[in-house]
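The material for today's practical consists of a large collection of protein records. Getting from the letters to the C-alpha cells is the skill we practise here. To make this concrete, we reproduce a full record directly below:
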Amino acid sequence: MSIGIGITTYNRPEHLRYCIEQIERFTKDYTLFVWDDAIDRKGVAYGKNMCIHNLKDCDYIFLFDDDCFPKAEGWADYFINSGYNHSCYMNDKYQRVYSGEKHLSYNLCAGAFIFITRKVVETVGYFNPKYGLYGYEHAAYCHRIYQAGLTPSRFITLKDTSEYIHSLDLDGIAGYEFLEHKRSITDTDRAESLKQNNPIYHEETTSHRIKYDFIP
C-alpha cells in the first residue's frame, strides 16, 4: 500500500511549513509532492493535476491546500479503510442534502482536502485542464467521479472527517492565529475566474465524457 500526498501552495510559506509539519507528525511511509503556483501562476486545476501526475502510481492520494492539514493520528487510515474511492472535506457551511451511515452529501463541494484512490485516477484521470485560475474545477471532478459510479453521490464527505482534518477556511482560525490566515485569491479575481470558468463547468457536466488526460 502506497500513500501519496500533494500540497498546492501560493505565497503562504508559513501555511505550507505548518502543513508539512502536521503531515510529518501524523503520517508514516508516504510520498510528498508540493506545487507552488507562485512559480508560474497557472491556477488550481493545473496545480492539482501536477500533484496527481507526480503521485499517480500511489494507491491512495490525498490533495491538500496549504491551509488545510491533518490533526490526529490515524487520519490516513481512516480514509483508506473507509471503502470509498473519493471524498472531500465539507461541513454544514454547505447545504446538507443527505446523511448516511458513513457519509454526508452536500449541494456543493470544497477542494481544500480531497481523497482519491488509484482507481479514480485510472478511470477518471485528471481535472479538466481548461479551467483557469480558480472555480468549478473540484465540482466538475466530483461530478465525473460520480458519473463513473465510484461514489454514491456527487459531493460527499466522510462523517468523521473533521476529527482528522482541519481547514482554516471551513473550520476557522481559532487556535491557529499564528498563521495570520487570509485567502490566496482576491475577491475580484475570484469573481472574474468564476465567471470565466462557468461555461467550462456547464460543458463538462452536461457531456458524457468521463476521463481527462493531462500533459504538464
In short: The helical segments are 13-26, 44-55, 75-80, 118-124, 137-147, 161-164, 168-171, 187-206. DSSP finds eight helices and ten strands in the chain. The mean pLDDT is 95.
